[in-house]
Amino acid sequence: MGSRNWVWHGVGMVLLLPALISVLLGWWLAPTSFFIESQEAFQSPNLQFLMGTDDLGRDLFSGVVQGLRTSLLVSMGVTSISYSIGIVLGITSGLLGGNSDQLFLKLSEIVMVLPRFLIVILSAAFLGQGIGILVVTLGLFSWTSIYRIIRSEILSLRTREYILAARALGSGVGRIGARHLFPAILPTATAVMPLSMCHAIMAEAGVSFLGLGDPETVSIGYLISNSNQFLFSGWWLFTFPGLLLTMTVAGLTLVMFGENDQSGSM
Amino acid sequence: MRLAQIPITLGIILGVSFFLIHAAPGDPVAALAGDFVTREYRDLIIHHYGLDQPLVYQALKYFANVTTGDFGASYYFKAPVFTVISSRIIPTLLLILPAVVLSTGIGIGLGFFTVRYKGTLLRIGIPFTATIIYALPTFWLGYLLILCFSIKLNLLPIQGMSNPRYTLVGWEYMLDVLKHLTLPLMTMVLTQLAQVILLIRTRLSEEIQRPYFKTALSKGLKQNTAILRHALPNALMPVVTVLGTRFGFLITGSILTETVFAWPGLGRLMIVAIEVRDYPLVLGILFILSIIILLLNLLTDLVYTLLDPRIHFGQYGE
């Protein structure tokens, strides 16, 4: 366990600001949908359009704000699904041991080698390009790392005296898991949470970049894929979405490192 | 034990994907027969490819064929799936394998430097830079490299695997491919690199706190020798374990990189196959990619036993 590093933490928070502002104040900053708006095309950044307009005259600033909001919301959705599965299975696995532990462990080994991104692409292509499907699929296939962390944590916790005391007082497995172990593993779980969010953000951006994202939701991946024909004529179209996505992911990672050096679990 | 797991995993991947793909709305008949066809011709095509059979029957038939090495025929390319795939395997491996080797090698080196020369700028600089590079979306990084090296400096080609204007042979051809490979490979290496550096840095700084390392120093070993001989091998083991679970990310990277650089590999073929709903081709590519991942995993296990003689095959534990 390292100590808190305020410099990294601070830099991370600053990098995260645009994404946080987009989620909290997006409704005020960019009230009209990126897709609906239409102005004069290819305006370079100016006071009216802070990040310029694209080939169809859409305001890039609105696009980036709405895209960042999508990124962050997707990552939260995915993480809550994968963490719920991982924590429940991890506690069950570590606490029960024996056959169910072996079963979950094998299952996690198999899920871990599955090419997750491919599965997400396949589900987007064949089940439909919805943001909901994307979140659920990503969540269902991202629980293995947190499961393993929680499981090994539980293995060392379950022999502690307070657990023994709880058991001696007649608490069942469910009660020990929910009341005694769950609070104990929470700090570990939250420490690596930003990493899981980063993976989800990048997966979503990648899927949208390939043109398999939700057509009704603005995504940074879509904005970047849309900009690649204009590397010269519209540098702003390429620069801003990528820069802000990088800032968000770097911000999350630095906050995590600053909080407690978990770089080993990347 | 580990070997036995491979067919099981492959079976699960193929099974899940088969039903996922076939249960989905949208149909491949358009790709097979064209958009404007008579009803009779449509029915004929559906019957010819067995698409009117029950799904379970189709699945069993497909699996039976796969075990004999027959992946069926691609709807779109009108050729056996294996023929379509086989020319794409080498380009993808050309991207993936050097990416693994280079990112691991360079990563270990840079990680070593951050720990060895801590207190200097490197200690903050390398992890910070690594974090930023880690945060770059693969495809955006690809375009950045194109902008920098192809458009501004005009050093390297933008796309493709070889120059279509000339037909080169022998060394000249290989040099041409190498030139085209540089940027995609750089993209792949950079995106993988950060992880290795940060991992090595964490583990190595843990190892040099241990008593055995102090012993090594106090018996007169130089700092460098002590790290390389004693700390590094111990630090490598958890790194290898973690890297072994990350090969899926390589596939992600190769799909995105191949798309950016129009590299004629499996990842790009996959995207094409999905667009035209070419079921047999999608499943075939998935199968090959899964085999590549699983073999790489097996390889990490072998490396693991090499690094730690206490571990034997069959008793793979925690």
Please explain how this structure is put together.
The complex is a heterodimer of chains A (266) and B (318). By secondary structure, chain A is mostly helical. Helices cover 72% and strands 0% of the residues of chain A. Chain A has helices at residues 6-29, 60-96, 98-113, 116-127, 131-140, 144-157, 161-168, 173-209, 220-227, 235-259. In chain A, helix 1 (6-29) packs across helix 2. The longest helix of chain A is centred in the first third of the chain and has 37 residues, at 60-96. Chain A is elongated, with a radius of gyration of 22 Å. With 318 residues, chain B is mainly alpha-helical. Helix content of chain B is 75%, strand content 0%. The radius of gyration of chain B is 24 Å and the shape is globular. The mean pLDDT of chain B is 81. The chains are: A mainly alpha (266), B mainly alpha (318). The interface between A and B is large, with 52 and 59 residues.
Strand and helix order of chain A: HHHHHHHHHH
The proportion of residues in beta strands of chain A is under 5%
Radius of gyration of chain A: 22 Å
Q: Quickly count the helices of chain B.
A: 13
**H/E topology pattern of chain B:** HHHHHHHHHHHHH
* Most strands sheet of chain A: none
Q: Uncertain runs of chain A with pLDDT below 50, 5 residues or more?
A: none
First-last Cα distance of chain B: 15 Å
Helix and strand content put the structural class of chain B at mainly alpha
Total number of helical segments of chain A?
Answer: 10
Measured distance between first and last alpha carbons of chain A = 16 Å
Helix content of chain A: over 70%
- Sheet bearing the most strands of chain B, described? none
Mean of all residue-level pLDDT scores of chain B = 81
Q: Which structural class do you get from the secondary structure elements of chain A?
A: mainly alpha
Shape of chain B: globular
Q: What is the typical, i.e. mean, pLDDT of chain A?
A: 86
Counted beta strands of chain A = 0
Oligomeric form of this entry?
Answer: heterodimer
